[in-house]
Amino acid sequence: MRRFAQIREDFTRMMLGYRFGMEQVATRLEILREEFAELHLDNPIEHISTRVKSPESILEKAARQGVELEIPALREHITDIAGVRVICSFVADVYRLMTALTEQADISVRVVKDYIANPKPNGYRSLHVILEIPVFLSSGPVQVPVEVQFRTVAMDFWASTEHKIFYKYEGDVPAHLRQRITDAAATAARMDEEMAQLHRAVHGTD
């Protein structure tokens, strides 16, 4: 019984750390949004959303990946327990915000996956960054990994629609629809470029 109580306490502490880390990243991004809006008369962030995986989802993913059900193993191998999604106006904003966030002194970067420069075969585009941010608990500081996804509005609309289609077909999407999904991703990419060109024509800058 004591062993179970300790496991529960450790897991609760871990989940609190992820929630606090996620909230800190979201706060840093909100600060950047207000700074750009007030000082640069520019708001590159359209929307910010956050989520923490449920314990059930964490355990299911650990089982799929063969990860040991111990706190250190979960922290090391399940890197998307805490997530922040940032929706930007333009592709240039994606990289500008990523740089502004990750260059902060107490944030370190684990992994960058640039699916904008290198889209997935189905057309998925987004910039994924797994970073670590310190969370100061009563027991001491903890480095918490948080996955941040940066997308444009067009990328997010495509990804949301693609997810709904795959959910409806339980992953078994007919080939002709898969091709249309991929074609739609190319259309979204062209729209991003066209809107960026319009922005430059009006403002003379990215």
From TrEMBL:
One of its GO terms (biological process) is guanosine tetraphosphate metabolic process. It comes from the Bacteria. Signal peptide: none annotated. Residues 50-173 form the RelA/SpoT domain. Keywords: Kinase, Transferase. The keyword Kinase applies. One of its GO terms (molecular function) is kinase activity. This is GTP pyrophosphokinase.
